[in-house]
Amino acid sequence: MEEKDMPYVHRDISWLSFNHRVLQEAEDPSVPLFERIKFLAIYSSNLDEFFRVRVAHHRNLMRVGKKTQKRLEFSPKEIIKGILKIVNKQQEKFSNIFIKQIIPELKKHNIRIRRRLDLSEEQKNYVEEYFNDHLLPFVQPVLLMNGMVRPFLNNAELYLSIHLQQKENPLAKPEYAIVKVPSDYSPRFVEIPSQGDGHDIIILDDIVRHSVSMLFPGYDILDTYSIKLTRDAELYIDDEFQGDLISKIKKSLTKRNVGPPSRFVYDRSMPQDLLSYLMETFEVDKAGLLKEGRYHNNFDFFKFPDFGMDNLKNNPLPPLSYPELESSDDIFDAIREREHMIHVPYQSYQSVVRFFEEAAKDPDVTHIKVVQYRVARKSKIMNALMEAVRSGKQVMVFVEVKARFDEEANLRWGEKLEAAGVQVYYSFPGLKVHSKLALVRREYKGKSELFSYMGTGNFHEGTARIYSDLGLFTADKRLTSEVARVFNFLETVKLPQTEFQHLLVGQFNLRASLIAKVDREIKHAKNGKDSYMILKMNSLEDKEMISKLYEASQAGVRIDLIVRGICCLVPGVKGYSENIQVISIVDRFLEHARIFWFQNDGDEEMYLSSADFMRRNLSYRIETAFPIYDEELRNEIMVFLHSQLMDNVKARIVDGTARNIYHKSTDDMSIRSQIETYYRIRRKTEVKV
What we know:
By secondary structure, this protein is an alpha/beta fold. Strands 10, 11, 12, 13, 15, 16, 17 and 22 form an 8-stranded mixed β-sheet that branches. An 8-stranded mixed β-sheet has the order 18-26-24-23-19-20-21-27, with helices on both faces. The protein contains 19 helices and 27 strands. Helix 1 (11-27) packs antiparallel against helix 2 (33-63), helix 5 crosses helix 6 (204-211) and helix 15 packs parallel to helix 16 (543-555). It folds into 3 domains: 3-312, Polyphosphate kinase middle domain (polyphosphate kinase like, 2-Layer Sandwich), CATH 3.30.1840; 323-498, Endonuclease, Chain A, CATH 3.30.870; 505-688, 2-Layer Sandwich (Endonuclease, Chain A), CATH 3.30.870.10.
């Protein structure tokens, strides 16, 4: 099949459809009120990163020569045009949700968001005192004048653009100024004296709006409009393959927040003459413009005050214990006896933490190795590794410093680990290490034995509370020996002497093995045998894999895809994908696990993985997919997959139209897979206890 002719949605257009699914959660009246506000924050945070990374990437492509652009598979100008059209529509929806749904719902619960024109005299006095006491030193007023040095707008910070008129000369040409909204020094939502029962809140922007006249005593304030500029977040490293990569990354990080503009956000009610003046002043072109409502930086909704009203939040689902590991006398004895799997955040992450803490204390443990991609700011796991060194153990950590937006944190952890005596290895040029692996070597009854933890998510105690991931504890020599070979490669950069037989590892056999498994299903279908695949992942973008899935569909293979985010494949297209169904689940936990199941004519195979079906994962990263050989664990995962496929509450149909229609199953009962999973695990835990 010619890849250029097949149905394919551009990855960034598809991503915007995913972010629309996030916005749907904010719109859903069945979602508790404060959770809806949180989804507004998630949507906004996602969009900010998208513009800083993906849109900035396309803007850079627009700057290259026409000859280079002709070699691209798409027009960056047309992609940006499409992005802005979609985002402008979504922003209107965002404003409607906030103004017409969220604010009235808050009011029903006696939480009132006050505008400055609605303030009582007592509230006005409070606001003015708050401005003088807390904000005045930080607002940085600047009168914009022709020929002046252009003021620098900090990345993703809030400003008010102000339309002014000289008091003594009302016939003079109107002037403009900017004032910073110091949300980095003050809460965005400020409680003010209440009028009646409940709580009155004013947004920080409106405190500055109310008080801005005192900053320009010789002027009348005609109007104010909020603006924000976000900057390109790419780390431009001239050559990863020459010189010291770490020092180059450190140097690039210092420039991230002063990079070129990637987006200029403005109040959609702003008059055109002011917008044109600001575009000229801050050197913004039309491709960088984005209309929003009155308020920007809506990721600040993460910090919206809840006033202790827990009834307006999700019912708590506290992580369930995994007593077989958490309460065992010896965690390594328990893993030696059989494999164990945890499913966070439904189950506690304590088993993983204990794995490292016990390894650090156990006198029989000699070596600990781990890959660090993203790690919590306060990490018990990293502390255990440093304690292990103090106990005389050999500890190796591979630190991937090119994990976007975690570069600085990972560099800090790397330096801290090195200072403690840990042997630290850093990023490869041109390649990311994204595997989620840990290995422990232990001397037991005169013999050396290996234990491994392999997961779909990072060693991060924080995200383990909100990301849905699976992790396997194993002493199976078929797996642990190959995990050891992965670490040998990370330490020596020497190719393994023997091929991987059980693990699928990026740069070695991952892509080829996945294609072979799809080809096997195609062969079964053509021979009239059972052929079916269930593939769950975060993103599906790789053209070779999509082409292969289309080929499988045409051969009669039934394919169910569960894709949280980007999905460039288009299901249900005649002649291509009639046998493919795609759903996406957005709910209270972020779906992060990658699961690949192949029916294989009854001799089924299942893999958990760190890799999505994206070109970067399959071609430019060290990823790992690991088999689930234990039948009981495999059955447990299959129950989870089937509950997701039957979800008729939070699953959406992905079909290339970007409508994100809610999936309706044939079951008469409501099935919300995340809630079903939690209570199924709870029942199982209670039976074992």
